[in-house]
Amino acid sequence: RLTPKDFSRAIERLGPLSKKWPHRWPLAENTRLRIARELYAVWVAHVFDQEAREEVYNALRESLSLPSGSAASDSAPEVSLDRSNVSIGTDVEPLVRKVSENEDRGSSVLEEYSLTSVHRRLLEFLAKCVVYNEPALLVGDTGCGKTTTVQCLARMLNRELMVYNFSDQSEAQELIGGLKPLPIDAGDLIKRWHILMDKTFSKKSNAALAAHVDKVAQKKGGAKALAIVTETCKKALAAGREEEEWKKLAQECKAATETKVMWGILEVRVRRGAATHGFANWGLAGPR
């Protein structure tokens, strides 16, 4: 059921685009196809029933005199990014990426997500909301990928994402399971840690610790390994070893592992038996 607001949204989307189209009549086929896709995206893309979506799209296609072989409305758009822009499909203007101190990390974002055709269409939908400054309401079961998809877009754009949870019925286990930390590429920091360790402490005496950090990074991920590295930095600083280099490494580890999520719940009651996380309390052998 369409409302005046739906028509208003469609006009707001088509208005800026019309300035780029040739002012001639009849409109070119590519222009009419773009109009059909925009109206479809605003009015029925959110409808679950695929047959209903196809029926509306066919009606739009016929009213705009488009051939039956026109591009499918439910096709999965291509997603790509470079140092400056993020491109999602052909109907969305490239989104400008925020300048990042670590550009190499951005290129691996797409490798951290398994984007299905559904997630690609959702990314296109969100990108259009960003371009047209529209709010977006994502509805679905827990764990279907709503927050993760928004996180993916934020990561690609190098933007900070704040997630609020206002449900007073959420249990701690649901919150922990619904917001999973993103993988951390800790390889460069761990390499620098190895160099500093060899420079500051006895390599032979700390071989077990070095091997343990590499094993943790491989088995449990970068965040766990950087937790051990951070503790090592604290011990090295307390011992007055290579203070500036260890301090800089500690700051970069903290920045890499810091969770950029703000909870909107004032109080979370953790059930008894909730899992706790920790790591081995390693000591450092003396200097060489």
Describe the structure.
By secondary structure, the chain is mainly alpha-helical. It folds into 3 domains: 4-64, no CATH class; 79-157, no CATH class; 186-273, no CATH class. It is built from 11 helices and 3 strands, in the order αααβββαααααααα. The protein has helices at residues 4-18, 29-43, 50-63, 103-106, 117-131, 146-156, 172-178, 187-200, 207-219, 222-238, 243-257, and strands spanning 79-81, 85-88, 95-96. The chain has a 3-stranded antiparallel sheet with strand order 1-2-3. Helix 8 packs antiparallel against helix 9, helix 8 (187-200) runs parallel beside helix 10 (222-238) and helix 8 (187-200) runs antiparallel to helix 11 (243-257).
Q: Average the pLDDT over all residues and give the rounded result.
A: 73
* Helix-strand string: HHHEEEHHHHHHHH
Helical coverage, percent range: 40-55%
Domain module count: 3
* Rg over C-alpha atoms, rounded to the nearest angstrom: 25 Å
Number of helices: 11
Uncertain spans: 177-182, 259-288
Structural class, judged by helices and strands? mainly alpha
In whole angstroms, the N-to-C terminal distance is: 76 Å
Which sequence of strands runs across the widest sheet?
A: 1-2-3
